[in-house]
Amino acid sequence: MGNEEFDVETALDAAIALHRVLAARTHRRKVMGQEVLVPGQLGEALHLPRIIRQLQGKQLRQRERGLEEFHELWPTLSPATREKVLNRIGWYDPKSLNWEDKRSNRRPIADSDR
Hints:
Layout: H1 8-24, E1 26-31, E2 34-39, H2 42-45, H3 48-55, H4 60-73, H5 79-89
Antiparallel strand pairs: 1-2
Helix pairs in contact: 1-3, 1-4, 1-5, 3-4
């Protein structure tokens, strides 16, 4: 991976997907003697709600600040988490696709004889 180049729209999609991926992680806690599953809080700790609000902002400067913060956050995530996020948003690397895959949009190599 590592060749992700996000713009404001794709960063927003990825930030929302990341927030969902992190919220899906649960932890066990004891509350009044009972074991309870609690949703993950890592998204809030990483300030994802603020980044998402910035990416959705009306002012260009605010969106660019959100994009910059997302670019700083992305490399700190584990490869497994990044892969889950990219799968959720439907991101793919066209160079790694099979010839029959319709997403590749590859054209046959032109004959040099013509």
